[in-house]
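Q: What would this chain look like folded?
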Amino acid sequence: MLSLIFLFFNIVVLQAQVVLQPNKLPEKAYITKYASIVNVGSQQYTINQIRNQESKLLFQQIKNNEASLGFTKDIYWVKFAIKNNTEHELMYYLETAEPVTDNVNLYMFKGANTQKYTLQKSGDNIDFSEKSVKNRATLFKIELMPHEEKIAYLEVINDGEKNNLPLILISQESLLQKVYHEQIVFGVFYGILLLVSIFYLFFYFALQDRSFLYYSVYVIFVAFCHFSLDGYYHQYISTTNSWFSLHAVIIFAILGSFFFGKYTEEFLNIKKYNPLLHQFFKIIYIALGMVLLGVLLIPSFLEFSYPIVNILTLIGMLLILASVISLNVKKQPIDVFFTSGIAILFLSFTVAILLNFGVLSLGIDNVTKLGIGLEVIALSLSMSNRIRLLKTDREKLQTIALQRSQEMNEVKSYFLSNMSHELRTPLNAILGIANSLEAEIKDEKVKEKMETIKYVSDSLISSVNDILDFSKIEKGELQLQKTKFEPIKTLEKLTFNVIIQAKDKGLRFEFVKPEVTDLEVIGDEARLSQIINNILNNAIKFTIKGGIKFIIEHEVVDEKLNLSISITDTGIGISQEKMNTVFDMFTQVDIDNKRKFGGFGIGLCIVKALVDLHEGEVSLESTLNEGTTCKVLLSYQLAPQEAKVINLFPTDNRDLLGKTVLVVEDNQLNQMVVKMILKKWANTNALFAADGAESLEVLKNNEVDVILMDLQMPVMDGYEATEAIRNGRAGTHNKDIPIIVLTADVMESTKQRVFELGVNDYMTKPVDQNLLYEKITTELSKVG
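A: My prediction, written as structure tokens:
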């Protein structure tokens, strides 16, 4: 039996196979080669029987980093030992098996001679709440006291699906980075599939071409199949071990294969050009239908269905390849994007199927996701070309558009609202990672790339906000908020990104502002930024050479601040006949400009709506091919003069001078993020509570100076906890303690509700370290 030994200052694995440098614990370590495995077939053993008969069971050493078990219904037992040879307590996570493995049980013994053990469970054949680590993957927590050795036995039970055993020890920080990486990869992957399926379903309703329907449904089932394979279906949709949850992967795989075949036949018109191949496709459909019936009606058939469907999928891909070759021989035109998509899919599926059967062992992760992502993009481009060809029959399209216009308008508003919400999640993840990495990286070139990522992400979020606001404009729900802010400083901040954009395009940028910049007004700071940011972005976008001039003028009259903002560019300009329509929805002067410069065509529409809400004025002066000047007149009520809070904390570095922060957050990963931030601040103490009820106990037993409060939590949520604190249930001395809400909820109704409960401030995730420090020190300075 091999043992993996972790040293805190000098880490050495037994038998001198791995030597790591001092002062560096491994963030990730494969322990597969230190483990042994035995296949016990269908025989079910207890842990005591396994230990008693260990010499007879013939455990064999695992040689590779990832043991590939292939398609199997057999039960496997894995044995390994871990020893902590340091003076410190260690905690790691152990990743094992596939997310869709039925049952994975980990038995941990404290030494070889003890009979006592702990049991952790995972797998999708148990309720998600019963998993030892509440994660989509099969994770277990490994805790080792100083000089403690543990013997582990892992029981792996499956129903016939493919299975791999990576056996990876992962630190908490590495697990966090892994989850962030998955948020980006899976967010982009599922986001692409979701948008593609919705868009082409809309096109089916508009054009009544069945290829769009088959393609949309195929993409939906592919998304659901991978959603199940990745463990998200069990985590978010069916958290129990229901029959459908256990059969979701195979059912979605069968339906996805069927609709992809139908889509290919419809797109290539196989029935017309090659009737023989059409008959072969029918045979594949019948075989898939028989497998589906077998899965539905015969429980024991499930273990055979996985390899059969893989084989049928490979045969189907060969039929599609034969169809493409046949049409080429017959000189029938085939879209180049379609051919590219099929080639990518054929290659990735072939590799994936060979990996599933254990023929290849390349250590390729998410090979099908990469292939499907590229394939969907290529096929979507081919479908776009199909749309262009269908548009030749304009009269038919116009008739259909008129019939569907009312329905599509309603669906469009709903879709835009939901799309903006769904896209915000992966974009927030990207910004969170970029901010975290930028703070840790010293390489200036890499920092510049991080800045680019943040800039692009901010631009995308701005576009998403425009889409959401467009939906609100149509419904008449757009409203202005009334808060205190300094408008000239707000406008000055907008120039940071504009300077970068102008520099990238080789343009001049001139900014003229008043000498007085600290005038405070009452109004909507975010909407003022949105108005001017949209105009500046348009000026940058439509200017190829020359430059942009941004001028702010002001005048105070009768306790009101009148702002006159003008933005002049030397861009392509606007013809006089188009001037009256530039503020209309989806207008961009010329359709060719959409192709050349991009954009949704709703920026100026939103500008006009927001200026009207301000009861202001917006005007344009333009000369074609010479440039454009956009002028905005807005008026704000001056804010009452109040004594400004003097910040008592350092501004050149982050130092809370011994203050204690209580973080109330139920999600362990979010706790880790905040912990990583506060750990870097000098003289800062941090306490953590997993829910509102626990936070009340912490406040009763500890001296706390400020609270960071999440809202959505079990037992007692943030709303209840805030109300309880303000009512004195955590002690009368804590009734007025500063509370800053830290949440992912961006709804205005939520913000209004928490302020009514008595919170001091409000922040949305991902966490901006600078803003967090500013808000905490501001609140602490108020209480002295």
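The mean pLDDT is 81.
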